[in-house]
Design goal:
By secondary structure, the protein is mainly α. The protein has one domain. The mean pLDDT is 87.
C-alpha cells in the first residue's frame, strides 16, 4: 500500500503511510492532535506575553529592555514547550 503508491500520489498526499500496517494510523492521529495542542499553547503564550507588555508599556511600567527580555524568555519557553512533541510516541 505505502510502498506500492506512485510518486505523484505520495507527493500530493497530506499523510502517506510508508508501510502496510494500518494500525499506525491511530498513532499518527494521536501525534497530530498532541502537536496541534502544543502549537495552540505556544501561540497563546506568545500572544499573552505581548499583550501583558503592551499594557505595561502603555501604563508606563515597562521599559523597552524589559519587553525585549520578556520576549526572549517567551521564545525560550515556546521552544521548550515545542520540544515536548518529541516525546509523543506509541
Amino acid at each position: 500500500m505505502g510502498a506500492a503508491g506512485t510518486d505523484l500520489a505520495l507527493e500530493t498526499a497530506d499523510v502517506a503511510l510508508m508501510g502496510d500496517d494500518l494500525t499506525k494510523l491511530a498513532l499518527a492521529v494521536r501525534i497530530s492532535r498532541k502537536t496541534l495542542a502544543i502549537i495552540c499553547q505556544n501561540i497563546a503564550l506568545s500572544l499573552l506575553i505581548k499583550v501583558v507588555f503592551l499594557i505595561l508599556a502603555v501604563g508606563g511600567w515597562a521599559t523597552l529592555w524589559m519587553a525585549v527580555a520578556a520576549d526572549m524568555g517567551g521564545s525560550l519557553l515556546v521552544v521548550g514547550n515545542g520540544l515536548r512533541a518529541r516525546q509523543i510516541d506509541s
